[in-house]
Amino acid sequence: MRGKEKGRPVYDMDEIVGEIRGHAVVLTGCRKGAVRRALAERGPEAAFVRAGDPGGPVRPGGVMVELIDHQLPEDSMRNEVLAELAAALGVATVATNAVHYATPRQGRLAAAMAAVRARRSLDEMAGWLPPAPAAFIRTGAEMQDRFHRFPGAVQRAAVLGVDAAFDLKLVAPDLPPFPVPDGHDEVSYLRHLTFEGAAAATAPARPTRRHIGNWSTNWRSSLS
Question: For residue 38, with 0-12 CB atoms within 10 Å meaning exposed, 13-18 middle and 19 or more buried, which class applies?
Fold first, then answer.
């Protein structure tokens, strides 16, 4: 809320680390994480410095270096570098899939949601969206096959998943009820408003009297 506008959170990293130390496992993150960004923009040495920086994401205790493989051209080499970085810093690796949806079929919906979040059309987002729906939940066997060169990374992911599991009801926000018309609950009314808005946004424009007059004049001209 410190950013005072939607989509602009402001964090105090020292404050966050102090609150979650001993209670959470921190992953170095996907392509937007500080370590991966440093690796992509300035190379392995910069990633090592960024990860080992006292102000960086890799701090003593509860940190794992995340390995992701979506079969993109640079994924294999990137994971090799990140694994070496983890060994040099004395922290563990964990194999994830940077999951954003459950199945490949949901990739199109995830792309649409990403465009909405960025307030752009799908055409405008085309160059920023992944080339294929690869960020889905894979089986343990699939993950083991993909990360066999990094012993223990998949097993640690499984153990971490069991240890960190919780009921989603624990984080359900206790918001005040929203007033809705009779015959609706909040979800059904939101769905109703969404369809109404979509119909209004995509409805073809009705021809005006001026348009009809222009068409009539042009048609007569074509006959003469």
Answer: buried
pLDDT digits (tens, 9 = 90+) for 164-183: 888 877 776 777 788 899 99
Q: Say how many C-beta atoms besides its own lie within 10 A of residue 64's C-beta.
A: 21
For CA atoms 143, 149, 154, 155, the dihedral sign is positive
Per residue in 1-10, pLDDT tens? 788 887 788 8
Residue 171 is classified by DSSP as: G
Helix (H, G, I), strand (E, B) or coil at 68: strand
What's the whole-model pTM score?
0.68
Domain boundaries, the chain: 13-99+137-171, 186-223
Contacts of 75 (CB under 8 A, 6+ apart): 68, 69
Per-residue pLDDT of 123-163, as tens digits, reads 999 888 888 899 999 999 999 999 999 999 999 999 998 98
Question: In whole angstroms, what is the distance from residue 185 CA to residue 191 CA?
Answer: 10
Among the residues of the chain, which ranges form H helices?
13-20, 34-42, 44-52, 75-89, 107-118, 122-125, 140-146, 153-164, 186-202, 209-223
Please list, residue by residue across 73-107, b when 16 or more beta carbons sit within 10 angstroms of its beta carbon and e when fewer do. eeeeebbeebbebbeeeebebbbbbbebbeeeeeb
Task: Identify which of 57, 60, 78, 56 has the alpha carbon closest to the alpha carbon of residue 69.
Answer: 78
